[in-house]
Amino acid sequence: MSLVKNPLLSILLLIAASSTAMAEPHFPRDYAISESCRLVEEQRYSDSVLMAERLRISESSDLGSQITAGAVALEIGATSVASAEFSSALRTKPLDPLALYGTALIELEKGQPRTALAMLISIDPTNIPPSADLDILVAKAICLAEIGDADGALGDLQATNDPAGAELIALINSRKTNSDTTPLTALLNEAMVNGIPQVIEPVGIRLLLPKAGIGPAVEPSITEREVSDDLANRFDSSYIASSLPDSAPITDSRGPLSPEQSDRIWKLLRIRPDYKVAEYELALALLAQRDRAGYETHILRAAALDPDYLDVRARIRPLFLGQVPDKFPVPDGTSLPSSLGLSAGRASAAGFWAGSPHSREIALTFDDGPIPIPTQQLLNALRQASAHGTFFVVGMRAVQSPDSLRQMAADGQAVEDHSYTHPNLAQILPQHVLPEILRTAVVIEATTGIWPHFIRPPGGNTNSLVLATAKACGMSGAFWTIDALPAEETGSPDAVAQWVIRRARPGAIVLMHNGMQATIGAIPKLVQGLRERGYKLVTITQLAADALADRHAKT
Which of the four CATH numbers 3.10.20, 1.10.357, 2.60.120, 1.25.40 does domain 7-119+220-270 have? Predict the structure, then answer.
């Protein structure tokens, strides 16, 4: 998968190139090399391009600069730029190990494993850091696997503990035995952290070994959507000049990289596992065994990692057909947030806003967790009050605190989706929407055993794409009729309790927040006050089921 034709990336490189034409201070080479590597390591890809491009132009005949610029370009998927830089490096120093290795990775990405293998074989093992031995071994094994020499690929790889090597071994062994799921299952279980599967691929050049004839063997570190996301956060062209500290070492060294610089770039170009391939192939193997549940679990995990891999998007499309209501009733008199500009009719199609006005039920909902200490305090307060609520969790926080989700489920609380990184879903790029929703859903299912029924878009910001994507993932949009944030911000538990109690109506959905101490302190008085007024506290799932049942009873 080459990203060189990515228009957004082309714009980025054009910006970098044009900015170098401006009057800029001279950059010490070693400082620029160090900064280029650091910015890639921190996933600040746009900034790394700006630095590496300036380094490349100002030091165009310098071997170390050529290698660094090639490595940065390869990391972000600018294959043609990387190829040109590594070719220049090989003209400057024939058989340079890093230039050969980088070119071999490009040949693998282009689907030329024999050419790549020849380059890897020509690398002098006495001229590389010890850690690079394993990098070359893994790359050679990928070449052999692509050529069709599975036994040769396994070879010495069996004795290593390299993650990409482990994935390669699992893929080869799984394909040898056709339907044996043991190798891939073991690999993916080993990759779990706290019982949660990987939902974001490792940063770096990744192993991509689809079956012969499908595609390349490796892929760049980032995808088009990640490049374009980073563009939005890119510093302006003054960043490079202003970031040069007074204490930056002023060295004008030329020629090869230092051992420390070389080791750093080898690490940048290390091949990482690409778990979507393992998830996808395990899913198909389970389907062949008629294990439908296992197939669905792993194809959804593959989609969370990359919904555009092969036919993943088409495979998840039928999984939730007919499972999500087209509309929820919006009771007359329901107060809808004016900022969203929705009429009751439009809100009905947009998601779930309120329960039945004929049932004295209320759903307390808590956004933005889990946050370890406040979440535990909130769960304790609800447990002591024998009350149920609904937690809309942020995926990246859930990955850090999976035990909080497990405790929510054990206590009978509902756990629902609040996106993975808490963006404005109505404003992010369209290709980001599905991963934002799906990654959190996968984490929720992995920790609680239950697929979420609802997603609450952060801030309530939604559009037709967000709602259609949620529906395709088996979820409805979930909103609210009482927003307690103004009271929460006062810091007063009494203010929160009274704010909600005064506005309570049958079928109300109350929006509160997981990390607010005022909310935690308000739970005893809030629960007591609502119960004294005849309200039953239910999860949003129960509220929705009762609302739909009430509507059907009247038709």
Answer: 1.25.40
